[in-house]
Amino acid sequence: MAYNHEFDRIEEKYDPLFTEREASVEPLPAGQSMKQSFDTFYAFVQEQIDGLPHKLKQKAKREIILAAEEQFGKVLQQKRARREQRKSRLIAHEQEAKKAKDQAAKKKPEQAAALKRSPA
């Protein structure tokens, strides 16, 4: 699945958190799937680790795991914040719709009464 830049434009328009994020990925090369891209990256990292002495291999693996956990935590926090924002926007929208519906319901009896009073 290729990186969708159109989604960024849509998200940028509706999501104020979008502008606070830094670009963390580059677009995928043409004809390359996300899995192929990950496999290439993983193979590169594995080659780099394999070339290290044993002590440094262990340290490098720990550092990679810590960095991945930190990044994953940030992603989860961003998703949680966006979910909460969407939820609050949805609740506000539902409240506005209910208010408009209630106002329309109040106007209908008034309009019916006005029609009865007006000469035909």
UniProtKB/TrEMBL annotation:
Comp. bias intervals (Basic residues): 77-90
Residue spans of biased composition, Low complexity class: 111-120
Residue span of region Disordered: 77-120
Biased composition (Basic and acidic residues): 91-110
Source organism, top-level taxon: Eukaryota
Name of protein: Uncharacterized protein
Native organism taxonomy: Eukaryota, Metazoa, Ecdysozoa, Nematoda, Chromadorea
